[in-house]
Amino acid sequence: MTCATKILGCGSYLPEKILTNEDLAELVDTSDSWIRTRTGITQRHIAKEGELTSDLGFKAAELALIDAELNISQIDAIIVATTTPDNIFPSTATKIQAKLNMKHGFAFDVQAVCSGFVYALTIADKFIKSNSANNILVIGAETLSRILNWQDRNSCVLFGDGAGAVILGRDQTGESDIIDSMLHSDGDFYNILNTDGGPSLNGGMGKITMQGKDVFKNAVSKMSATVKEITEKNQIPLENIKLIVPHQANKRILDAVAERLNLGNDKIVSTVNIHANTSASSIPLALKEALGNNMVSRGDYMIFEALGAGLTWGSMLIKY
Ligand code: UT7
């Protein structure tokens, strides 16, 4: 039996503390004008001391449950996409499971960096379509501020903290909201964006290092290519897509993707100005904003797309 996957609810949470570009200019040799013109970012949220990835993810999950009008007893699994887990192990998903007082089902993390949410949602969709789960809570949660080198102006101005969650549910009769997803990776690009440490490498955690221009070029070409391939494969003309919800890394990347696809900027959700790059959290955070602003209605076609370290990239075609 083939089952359909429905999007039942969405929630998001941002830490209270805001760090503006002016605040950053007091920490490193940068300026509001450089950050705005090169990235479109004006501010980012930063978790306070003691506020963990699991805390942000838990709050987003609670709001998604309210939005979906479900309680935790109706959730069969939790999948968390994160690059900044509370601990190397156990998974942050099991920590959130405990915070939600969920005593049944299973929970695990997915690591695909900024593409993590697309990967996690794809896995959840497959569980549902193969009739292995009814409702799955998918969370993107990050405290990237903990792995930034606050002396490196090339990277520390780009990232922020936050979390978003989507609940997927099974429908035995109706049409699927998730039509298709396409995932890619290419480990030849391992070193253009990574941390300079890890448990196996040097027993440490490491901080983010990045060859910005190479990542930029790959982001523009691969994110536009994955939108094209998924629409062509499913024979949906691009002009029928109401909204693209991309990973939020840099406004110039979003504009370049829009230009390559010949799409108006109004079709591409942009929240990078207020959230900065929140890695696996950026798509559900942007989705929540788009839903709140009625940018998409039931029945509209949407595409989620992302590129992250690995490199990993991919897209998901939705009929909301
Ligand atoms: O989720 C995926 C993760 N990351 C990304 O997608 C990021 C992709 N890359 C980018 O967004 C851009 O490459 C950056 C925003 C990181 C950099 O923009 P750019 O236009 O490629 O600048 P650049 O690296 O070529 O640097 C230009 C100049 C350099 O100075 P010189 O050598 O021309 O004198 C940098 O040292 O800007 C300087 N610079 C800064 N100046 C002020 C670099 N960072 C800063 C800064 N403030 N924060």
Report on this model:
The chain is an alpha/beta fold and 320 residues long. 33% of the residues lie in helices and 26% in strands. The protein contains eleven helices and 13 strands. The chain has a five-stranded mixed β-sheet with strand order 1-7-6-4-5, with helices on both faces. A four-stranded mixed β-sheet has the order 8-13-12-11, sandwiched between helices. It is globular and about 60 Å long. The model has no long low-confidence stretch (mean pLDDT 97). Bound molecules: oxa(dethia)-CoA.
Counting helices, strands and paired strands, the structural category is alpha/beta
- Ligand list: oxa(dethia)-CoA
The percentage helix is 25-40%
Instruction: Give the ordered list of helices and strands.
Output: EEHHEHEHEHEHEEEHEHEHHHEE
Set out the fold topology:
Blueprint: E1 4-13, E2 18-20, H1 21-25, H2 32-39, E3 43-45, H3 53-68, E4 77-81, H4 92-99, E5 106-110, H5 116-129, E6 135-143, H6 153-156, E7 161-171, E8 178-185, E9 193-195, H7 199-202, E10 208-210, H8 212-233, E11 241-246, H9 251-261, H10 272-275, H11 282-292, E12 301-308, E13 312-319
Parallel strand pairs: 4-5, 4-6, 11-12
Antiparallel strand pairs: 1-7, 2-3, 6-7, 8-13, 9-10, 12-13
Helix pairs in contact: 3-4, 8-9
List keywords for this structure.
single chain; 320 residues; alpha/beta; four-stranded mixed beta sheet; 11 helices; 33% helix; binds oxa(dethia)-CoA
What's the quick description here?
This protein has 320 residues and is an alpha/beta fold. Helix content is 33%, strand content 26%.
